[in-house]
Amino acid sequence: MAGFATLSQAWMAWDGPAPAPEDAVLDHTRELEKFLSEVERRAFRIAQVSLRDEDDALDVVQDAMLKLARNYSAKPSAEWRPLFYRILENGIRDLQRRRAVRKRLMAWLPGPKEDPDEEAVDPLENVAAGGADAPGLLMQEQAMSQLEISLRALPARQREAFMLRNFEGLDVAETAKAMGCSEGSVKTHYSRAVHTLREQLGEVW
Amino acid sequence: MNEHSSFEDHGRRLFDASVENLDMRVRSRLTQARHAALDASTSPPLRFLRLPVWSSAAGLTAAGLLAFAIWVGGPMARPHHASPVPESQASLEDLDLVASSDGSNAAPMEMLQDDIDFYEWAADKTASGDPGNVG
Predict the structure, then answer these.
(1) Which chain A positions have a beta carbon within 8 Å of B129's beta carbon?
(2) What is the fold of A23-112?
(3) Which is deepest, A5, A82, B108, B130, by most CB within 10 Å?
(4) Which structural domain, as residue segments, surrounds residue B115?
């Protein structure tokens, strides 16, 4: 049987130059890293808009990245984006369902009521101190806050369609895959979302 | 139609700006999450889950033999001698000895743990019959 004659021989081979990496595996990992680094911040903001909680949004995004890497990274990279957002949207929906159950439960219990959805949003909180363009940044923050408030008031499917199509730039077919519905439904949800948002924001924007 | 498009463009620009303005704490946590996901995608599944049935049986047999050897060679099997220190105290002293061993005379188990990658790699090489280029 071929092998190392002695342990020291094995140590010498171990210390020597590394064998050529398996290019395919390395390329695949790099591609996955590139994809995740491209989507992670946008995915976080999408989750944050829906959940209104930074830590919950981070958890949901982390979970989506792990699930994609573990279960679907072998799929063609062209399929990653809709798959990733499908996992993300499922995670967001699960968390919202759990919150709704907890809220109902809390309503039955005595004591102070916990309701994170009633927290006031202060756009000044997120504005960087100082900065040459602070007024412009503040206006942007305020406009985005108004958009977020209006988005949260939308039905969930309309909100999803709007964020995936408009924020993330998925086409209709990708959005349909991500939402698990037909392309026709995506068009309907999106068009209704834009209509409602324009009605609400048109004058103040 | 144009008005519609500019409305959507404005929303997208605001969203892009909010992504750009994410604070360092969030960015850092996202980077950590990404690395964790990449590790999960590259780490192989646990090896014992892939063992064929015969090797599981062999492993169980070996474990049984080892347990038997420990039992035969253990304190239960030895003739009882009066110990100069109580058993619990002796155990604590043993623990202290293990814990206080420094790098110059490190415990073998510690060395094994440090070099576990090497031993795995050497085993793989031997199994594949390719010892590599050795001078």
Answers:
(1) 1-3
(2) Rna Polymerase Sigma Factor; Chain: A (1.10.1740)
(3) A82
(4) 100-130
Question: What is the C-alpha to C-alpha distance for residues B3 and B13, in angstroms, rounded to an integer?
Answer: 15
| Domain locations in chain A as residue ranges | 23-112, 131-205
Q: Nearest-5° angle of CA A107, CA A44, CA A177?
A: 95
Q: Is the ipTM, as predicted for this complex, more than 0.90?
A: no
Residue A14 forms contact with B (CB below 8 Å): yes
Q: CA A9, CA B112: separation in Å to the nearest integer?
A: 17
pTM: 0.61
Look at residue B115 and tell me if it is in a domain.
yes
Domain A131-205: state its class.
mainly alpha
**Under a CB-based contact definition with an 8 Å cutoff, are residues A149 and A200 in contact?**
no
Identify whether B22 is part of a domain: no
**Do B17 and A167 count as a contact with CB atoms less than 8 A apart?**
no
Which of A60-64, A133-137, B75-79, B120-124 is predicted most confidently?
A: A60-64
Position A81: which residue type? R
Nearest Cα residue in chain B from A201: B7
Question: Does the residue B51 lie in any domain?
Answer: no
Distance from CA of B118 to the nearest CA of A (A): 7
Q: Which residue of A has its CA nearest to B115?
A: A11
